[in-house]
Design goal:
The chain is of the alpha+beta class. It is built from 10 helices and 15 strands. It is 24% helix and 27% strand. The two termini are 24 Å apart.
């Protein structure tokens, strides 16, 4: 399921201009070439209006195929979706890209990454790639958190000591997400597999004084709005940045494996805490991206973590930017 008409209209030169990318931009065509598993560069810069966006590669989870990954969907079907998108079928590729915005004289980091080796043993690249991009950890003014899954927040803490990595940065998160995870009664209710993460969050995050809890729809910085996108977690949120007539949405895990969930938005991932709500959110967010011509990034899109969605009936086509 892919809308070739819109895809054909998006010539590479026009698309490069639309995304503000300085380098050559290509749209992947799975029938001709397979997308590399890992990028050859560690960061990539582009602009949205006056916003300078730096996409920084953290690492990849080469997740073994698992029939439980997508509810009631076979491994053969998930492999077929990967192959159709031009991705490897040897494993489930789940890359992680962190976005830093330079906006209004501030450096704003969207999620904190997975922490060096704290999520996956080969997800260790963020510090070096940030430095290569000319971004100093200590210069980050604000970190806007989408949700409290380890690959998005373990980068807030040092491995072993749990000391805060960004003690002076403002940490913004949806109040629903923060309160759900730090509820004293929560740990006992979590599935066994999530209890270690829940325990680490509950024991450390409440100690920090630099949290700013916000509600859905709040302007969290000049030109940036938080939008509730529940389902993946109770308080999962996306952020919408505005610059003149341009808009940029940091969609986090709304569409976390687009090769699977764009053509099959009704598929329920095992990491979606509330599957039906996640499906409804997926449609709501991506429909808005398309209708309003919003540039979009996703934490687990192929690096550099951005691309174009188009409608295809009740599903979507997705063409990742390839640098």
């Amino acid at each position: 399921m892919f809308s070739m008409t819109r895809r054909t209209l998006l010539g590479t030169a026009a698309a490069a201009a639309a995304f503000g990318l300085a380098g050559k931009l290509e749209f992947t065509r799975p029938a001709f070439a397979q997308t590399p598993v890992e990028p050859t560069v560690g960061f990539y810069k582009y602009t949205v209006g006056d916003i300078e966006v730096t996409a920084i590669y953290d690492g990849i989870w080469k997740k073994p195929h698992d029939p439980a990954f997508i509810k009631d969907v076979s491994v053969d079907d998930t492999k077929a979706a990967l192959a159709k998108a031009g991705l490897t079928t040897d494993f489930m590729p789940i890359p992680l890209t962190v976005v830093v915005l330079k906006m209004g004289g501030k450096l704003i980091m969207m999620d904190a990454g997975s922490g060096v080796g704290q999520w996956q043993t080969n997800a260790t690249h963020l510090p070096a790639n940030m430095a290569a991009a000319g971004i100093d950890y200590k210069a980050i003014d604000t970190i806007m958190i989408s949700h409290f899954h380890p690959d998005h927040v373990w980068g807030l803490m040092e491995k072993g000591t749990n000391a805060p990595v960004f003690p002076n940065a403002e940490l913004i998160v949806n109040a629903t997400e923060y309160n759900w995870w730090t509820d004293p009664s929560r740990l006992a209710k979590l599935p066994e597999g999530r209890k270690p993460a829940g325990k680490r969050i509950a024991e450390n995050f409440p100690k920090w004084k630099n949290w700013k809890l916000v509600e859905d729809g709040a302007e969290v910085a000049p030109g940036i709005q938080i939008i509730a996108a529940p389902g993946h977690t109770p308080g999962h949120s996306v952020y919408l940045a505005n610059s003149g007539k341009e808009q940029f949405m940091i969609s986090a895990d709304t569409m976390y494996v687009p090769a699977l969930l764009a053509p099959h938005p009704e598929w329920q991932g095992s990491y979606d805490q509330d599957g039906p709500t996640a499906i409804a959110t997926r449609h709501k967010i991506i429909d808005r991206v398309i209708a309003d011509n919003i540039r979009v990034s996703g934490s687990h899109f192929p690096f550099p973590g951005t691309g174009v969605f188009v409608k295809d009936g009740n599903a979507y086509g997705f063409t990742p930017v390839q640098i």
